[in-house]
């Protein structure tokens, strides 16, 4: 890495957008000894993963989890020096409940897909015939070619029904995992993205789906740690700096933020897709004219409830047949030292995103109390809602053709973001992969401006 005292060798780089994609791209370029300036319009780094303080409580904008198979996200945590601030399950274990029944998706120490066999046998929402049909569909899903463009034209829901999956199996099993990872119901999701998630997460390596989460507020885990790491790597971080224009010059690029123009040799544009569409110069990407609108958005709502006593005995619980899809114990990360703070994470939340808080309270407290009998006798001390309207792009069939790769048609201009063509749905892992990819392409494409070293930049980067 460059760090202080190491002469910069590579091209001058502007990274626009300080989410996980931009942070990763900026670190990649800085570690390759490029002089980097990161422009972020908000006052913090971390993008869609952030926290705020509310009456002494640290609140994340939305519960974020990762899986053991999120190798590049975990590498970023290590690069930021915060890998010990997350908890990663030793073995996948998901307590699943409805109002009357309790189940558990716990893996055994067996190779995939046998690791989930015992859990399936005891999964209370499936009949014996459902279990047999589920296994047949899972094996068929393992064989789906996610690189075949036709796979992206099919809806996951249609594919599941064509493979004998009944509504109850889709609701209690496929959507339990799928909605949380894809941010879409099976009927609204591309088979290519769904198959990617299930193949990588559940059907290939037994330990891939062990679940991890932060033990500290997301802002400290990502934003604050990134600012320190970037500064230590020699990068300049400009927060509160909204880029309003990106212009090509005869030798490079001009980035305009707050009326100030900065000349650079190369740019990584790591902003959300509609912001990218507004900044990209004509001819940069070969996409349909309405590509950003077509990629669309899918919302996530988090319902936050503080009880006067512990009501959830596990770190999280998943719900079947309820709007309370996943409930997390936020107490340790929030700084609360009395009572329990829960967050209900509601993905694909179109139904709830515009509903007033009072209405969500009427809907979600009874749902929570059906899932958590101990909550019925507890007092609700606080109830509030966070809404992320633009949480992810809509992972619908036909999305793949709307996601550009890291290289644009214009020299020195690269794209990153969870919405770019990573093969993953919009996740932290996808964002990090996109940032790594943009930085790697930039470093290998753009010649160094004052290379006094015999070491090629591409080797420094690796
Ligand atoms: C509530 C919620 C829950 C989620 N849960 C999970 C989860 O459990 N697991 C998971 O893996 N993923 C989850 N995600 C998705 C994940 O957070 C995102 O996919 C990822 O963080 C996106 O990172 P990014 O860098 O691509 O984009 P962003 O985080 O959107 O970063 C883009 C940045 O660009 C900045 N910007 C925009 N325009 C400009 C401009 N003109 N100039 C300068 N800066 C600009 C923005 O302010 C932003 O900081 C969740 C998302 C939300 C919202």
The first-level CATH class of the largest domain is given as: Alpha Beta
Instruction: Return residue spans where pLDDT drops below 50 for at least 5 consecutive residues.
Output: 450-462
Q: Mean pLDDT, nearest integer?
A: 94
CATH topology of the largest domain: FAD/NAD(P)-binding domain
Beta-strand segment tally = 20
Fourth-tier CATH superfamily name of the largest domain = FAD/NAD(P)-binding domain
Q: Please tell me how large the radius of gyration is.
A: 23 Å
Question: What summary fits the major beta sheet?
Answer: 7 strands, mixed
> Portion of residues in helices?
25-40%
CATH architecture of the largest domain: 3-Layer(bba) Sandwich
Principal-axis shape: globular
Distance between the termini: 10 Å
Bound small molecules, which ones? flavin-adenine dinucleotide
Structural domains: how many: 3
Protein name: Phytoene dehydrogenase
Keywords: Oxidoreductase
Organism: Nocardia terpenica
Cofactor: FAD
